[in-house]
Amino acid sequence: MKIDTTTIQQLREMTGAGIMDAKKALEESGGDVDKAIEYLKKQGQKVAANKRERETKEGFIGSYVHANGKVATLVALACESDFVANTDDFHQLAHDLAMQVAATDPQYVSPNEIPEEVIAKEKEIFEEQLKKENKPEKIWKKIITGKLEKFYEEVCLLKQPFIKEDKKTIEQLMNEKVLKLGENIQIKEIKRVVL
């Protein structure tokens, strides 16, 4: 199937993907733009996984102060080069992440930052709830796994739905930006101050 340049350009504008990536996505999806976007998202996750090992020594600190002046946040966002660190896309991502932190107050960036004792305590609470609800013990593991995922969504920035587009998690947003900007991008630190 021949893919026309108008469709490639449309997909590029929607996703920020490169010409060859957009063309390949359209070819893989039979010219369907929605399927091509899904393909690029999946590829973005693969690209992000491949780039996660690369060193991030440049970056930008995004900030946000809520309109009432009583909540302020900072997000230290790192990338590989000063070229990417100085782009509007990177600055916008840092600002969006700072706004997310102001709105949702995550305690951690990712689940692997949560201390083991905190997870153990949550599991203990979930088990007590399941006992009170008289749920059969053989299904506890599956239920507790689901409850832990919900817990991670509440306390971990990467697992939260993006406030500007709630069908997408922050992790998916980060993967899209890795694909678009072509570099490893990491959230190094988050800070939230409330009066």
Please, could you describe this protein's structure?
The chain is an alpha+beta fold. The protein has three domains: 5-51, Orthogonal Bundle (Helicase, Ruva Protein, domain 3), CATH 1.10.8; 58-109 and 156-194, Tetrahydropterin Synthase, Chain A (2-Layer Sandwich); 115-154. It is 54% helix and 17% strand. The protein is built from eight helices and five strands. It has helices at residues 5-15, 19-28, 33-51, 82-85, 88-104, 116-132, 140-155, 170-181; strands at residues 58-65, 71-79, 161-162, 165-169, 186-194. It has a three-stranded antiparallel beta sheet. It has a two-stranded antiparallel ribbon with strand order 3-4. A hairpin with a 5-residue loop joins β1 and β2. It is globular, with a radius of gyration of 20 Å.
Overview in brief:
By secondary structure, this protein is α+β, with helices and mostly antiparallel strands.
Secondary structure layout plus pairing:
Elements lengths: L4 H11 L3 H10 L4 H19 L6 E8 L5 E9 L2 H4 L2 H17 L11 H17 L7 H16 L5 E2 L2 E5 H12 L4 E9 L1
Antiparallel strand pairs: 1-2, 2-5, 3-4
CATH architectural label of the largest domain: 2-Layer Sandwich
CATH class of the largest domain: Alpha Beta
The assembly state of the depicted protein chains is: single chain
- Widest sheet: strand order? 1-2-5
**Main beta-sheet strand count, sense and barrel state:** 3 strands, antiparallel
Listing every helix as H and every strand as E from the N terminus to the C terminus, the arrangement reads HHHEEHHHHEEHE
Q: Estimate nothing, just give the exact number of structural domains.
A: 3
CATH superfamily of the largest domain: Elongation factor Ts, dimerisation domain
The termini sit apart by 59 Å
Say how many strands there are. 5
